[in-house]
Every structure is written in C-alpha cells, then in structure tokens.
Amino acid sequence: MCSVCKTACHEKSIVLIDIAGKFAGVTEFLILLNGYRARYRKWTYGPRADRLSEGELLQALLDFGEELERKPLHVATDDTTFPMQSAGKTRPARLWVYVGDEANPYNVFDFTLDRGREGPKEFLKDYTEVLLADAYGGYNGVVAGNAITRAGCWAHARRKFVEAEKTAPEIAREAVRLIDALFAVEKQAKEISVAERLALRQAQSQPVLAQLREKLLRWKE
Prior knowledge:
By secondary structure, the protein is of the alpha+beta class. Helix content is 38%, strand content 22%. It is globular.
C-alpha cells in the first residue's frame, strides 16, 4: 500500500522526468516504486498544482506519463537494471525509458519487476506509431498483432559488427564504415528541421543503406 496515495500501486509504477510544463511547480522528479512509498524531491507548488493533494498529484503525473507516450510519431526505448529493496537485501528489477520525439520532448521511465515483455507491452498497448529499440526478443511480442512499426537501433547493430571483427575482420570493418557514414549524416542533421532532415537522409543515407543491404545479402551467402 502506497503511503502517499493510499492505493496498492505495485501494478502501475512510473518515473516521470521533465514534466514541469504540465504541472507548474514540480521542479525535479517523482519516483513511485512498486509496493513502496513514493519518494520525491524539492516540490514547490504553482497555481494549479497547489490545489491537488499529494495522492492526486501522483496519479495525475502517472496518467500524464502514459498519455505522453501515445502522442509521439517515434518513441525510442531501452531498459537497464535497477536495484529494488527486498526482504533483507536488494533484488534486480528493471527500469524502461521511453523517449518522445521533437514535438513531444519527454522522457518517461517505467519500473517493472523483471525484463519480461509484459511490461513494455502493457505500457505501449495504445501506441500505434514507430518504436525504436534494440534486438531484445521481448519486443517481438510487443509489436506483434498491432499497428506499431518496429525500428532497429544502429548503435546496437554497430556494436555487434565490432564484436565480429575477431572472426570476420573484413566484413566487420566494412559494415562499421558504412554505419559510421550513417552516423555522419545524423551529425549534420542534428540542428536542422524535420523536413530538412528527411531530405538529407533521403539524399545521403538512402544510398548508404542500399550499399549495406547489398553487402549483407552477399555476406550471408
């Protein structure tokens, strides 16, 4: 039972960051951990937030976090281990980050007890756009049978080719060279508009991707 909102919150636990624009006065961040009390830092109350009780504000922030991740056209996600206090010791849990796009520049963190696919599947159940993630197999079930488009992470792909240099050095180096060419385009695109970025990618990244695809198919033979 949560000591702040007086509810059993172990089924829905989210960390929200960068949300001061929604509730003026929340200056840092809020953490609501599974089965534990809410912990929070440096609360100041603005004209809207000061009319909410702590429990109401917690629930509003949780609802807002879930609402945020249904809006972006692209959501990037990853997870990391997170220590959770247990009886007499800590046990490893997971913290999932969901990063919005430029129009929705929010980071939402979801806490789960393990790395099972049910966590992201539940969190993204109403999402219908592009999900950018690594090759973790749990995401296969997250995007199956719905409108989500799955996109891969080039940084994770590059890492695998670097690891493969010991066994297939020529292939690995050529793949890394082409992926680095994609990264160079992204560096150019960092400070330009979305439309300009798309045009730049179509002009410079698409030919590189075509080369990489051709080589991957040949290396596979």
